[in-house]
Amino acid sequence: MSLWPDWRALAHVRDDRPDVNLLHESAELKVVLVALAAGQSLPEHAGPAACFHILDGQGVIVVGDDHVPVSAGATVVVPTGLVRAVHASTSLVFLGNLGNPASEDSPH
């Protein structure tokens, strides 16, 4: 078991690059805490099934051809194989959970 009492102690918005914190990685599950500054993005890419829970801020999550506006409290589930990306409109922090992480080529 792992416990992080407060995600705010880990997520740091950086002007030079996204801040990606690997919280857990196993053959079945990968969990990341990601902080993006306004205007930053994670690139579009296909990947395993994923769940993105927005903790703070506003942005857009790309799922296939859809561009979904999101803000704190929103949760988006993306099926395996669909292209996905995250674009921050304001400072944005999200928790990403990926199933079958070995199938994904990128670091997110």
Structure characterization notes:
Strand 1 (19-25) and strand 2 form a beta hairpin. This protein has one domain (10-103): Sandwich (Jelly Rolls). The protein is 0% helix and 54% strand. The relative contact order is 0.29. The chain is globular. The mean pLDDT is 92. With 108 residues, the protein is mostly beta strands.
Short description:
The chain has no helices and 9 strands. With 108 residues, the chain is an all-beta fold.
Task: List its salient traits.
108 residues; mainly beta; Jelly Rolls; five-stranded antiparallel sheet; 9 strands; globular
The count of β-strands is: 9
Query: Could you spell the SSE succession in H and E letters?
Result: EEEEEEEEE
CATH topology: Jelly Rolls
Question: Describe the biggest sheet?
Answer: 5 strands, antiparallel
Give the secondary structure arrangement, pairings included:
Layout: E1 19-25, E2 29-36, E3 41-46, E4 50-56, E5 58-63, E6 66-71, E7 75-78, E8 83-88, E9 92-99
Antiparallel strand pairs: 1-2, 2-9, 3-8, 4-7, 4-9, 5-6, 5-8
